[in-house]
């Protein structure tokens, strides 16, 4: 008897096969703006479906290694990465995944919506980038920080063109050295000290515990300026060159070696993101350049980087959700079960349709955050800035949690094959699990939302958008309008209560539930906006999302009936 081999067709093209992405771009950019972006998106999608998919597999199969010493015993701390990782690096530069919103040509073509186009690039690139999306995120965050007017022009001119280059031989990425073992997300406990050197540069001494993309050419590190008081507000961001070639303290030797004073203690053995080199780093009088005046409280400057990386985290979450759904649908189309295709099973159709609803809600959250950021960055739009203050943490926390739940379902959708490493499916779950952790856990972000609402009046723009969407929904679905109206009033009352006693046990203990409720309501509102523009899939997704996440109803039957629209 012949041995059965299951055919598994490739998923649809990530650009042409994603109707929600395409309609979102039509609405956000206009037909002409979308047409101007189409060549970029088509080219990247072709690379993702071909050489980058192979590069992704190679990078996962050949994780980075740390070589501490050369053959003669000299300490070199070299991180060796695979050909696949280097291919991802080159593609990120070539396709302007970081650079696009900084290019004069892109700002001339799309204005503030250049960030919308960047989000589309990230949506296509991230899921099969072997997590090169992480150094992409940190490079973008570093570029945004370097673009601030407080940063010395000489530092900006030396590094910003490299971070935003589209020539792979010139482009560099950045690390983000903030976390320390004793504090974690509690930055107030940071021990790394910065000492002025007298020539405008500084020297950093301390230990950094979780340094991803440690092969990057630079890192943004937080340190406490010598003589500064306790707490986190006084911490200042510094640019630390990673390699000897960029450190004035190097006295010749191998330019690709570690910069003097920088030591890579070990690479992390992580649950997922295995192709991404993450290290523990020691700093001993390491050369550093201040990003702004270290005498002024610097955490607010560093938050420029953090906001950008939170947005990228959301984009990565949604990219993985959409690609996992595409793989699960392709498998269901081919798999024969009980005399028919798996995709024809009403139960499996309901499962995939529900995942399609979750993916649609997550997509509009991430997409809206990028659109707001573009308006802040290019137009200095105060309304967008006020809304982004709460949308950034909401989008990040909600998409991170949804990504993990969906990834677990994708593994299950493949049955036993989903549990076998060489299919590549388990990686979807292993890699997704970092998304609620990076750039702030769910609880950390929920408390940030609490601060934004109680200290910065961030509830106002959120509630305004929810109320407007409830009015818009009346012409789409009275039930949906009623749900949005009720949840908006519920959140309004909740925000009043927690603002009256923001440090109270009730406010703090309930912060996660409130933040998730607000995020789910926002996603419903954004789906309503897109549905009102004329997208049929968004119309269906808005109704089912509201029932699933705001009214906690079962949506299996309707998800089954609308599978082809949702997935």
Kindly describe this structure.
Helix content is 55%, strand content 12%. The protein has 19 helices and 11 strands. Strand 10 and strand 11 form a beta hairpin. Helix 1 (19-49) crosses helix 9 (346-379), helix 10 packs antiparallel against helix 12 and helix 14 (478-500) crosses helix 17. It is of the alpha+beta class. The strands form 3 sheets. Strands 4-5-9-7-6 form a 5-stranded mixed barrel. A two-stranded antiparallel ribbon has the order 1-2. The protein has helices at residues 19-49, 51-61, 83-94, 104-110, 114-125, 133-146, 153-163, 299-334, 346-379, 382-413, 425-432, 442-456, 459-473, 478-500, 505-509, 511-533, 536-550, 556-561, 563-566, and strands at residues 65-69, 75-80, 174-177, 193-196, 202-212, 218-225, 236-241, 262-267, 278-290, 336-337, 340-341. The radius of gyration is 24 Å and the shape is globular.
Give the gist of this structure.
With 567 residues, the protein is an alpha+beta fold. It has 19 helices and eleven strands. 55% of the residues lie in helices and 12% in strands.
Topology at a glance:
Blueprint: H1 19-49, H2 51-61, E1 65-69, E2 75-80, H3 83-94, H4 104-110, H5 114-125, H6 133-146, H7 153-163, E3 174-177, E4 193-196, E5 202-212, E6 218-225, E7 236-241, E8 262-267, E9 278-290, H8 299-334, E10 336-337, E11 340-341, H9 346-379, H10 382-413, H11 425-432, H12 442-456, H13 459-473, H14 478-500, H15 505-509, H16 511-533, H17 536-550, H18 556-561, H19 563-566
Parallel strand pairs: 3-6, 4-6
Antiparallel strand pairs: 1-2, 4-5, 5-9, 6-7, 7-9, 8-9, 10-11
Helix pairs in contact: 1-5, 1-9, 2-3, 5-8, 5-9, 6-7, 6-8, 8-9, 8-10, 9-10, 9-16, 9-17, 10-11, 10-12, 10-13, 10-16, 12-14, 12-16, 13-14, 13-16, 14-16, 14-17, 16-17
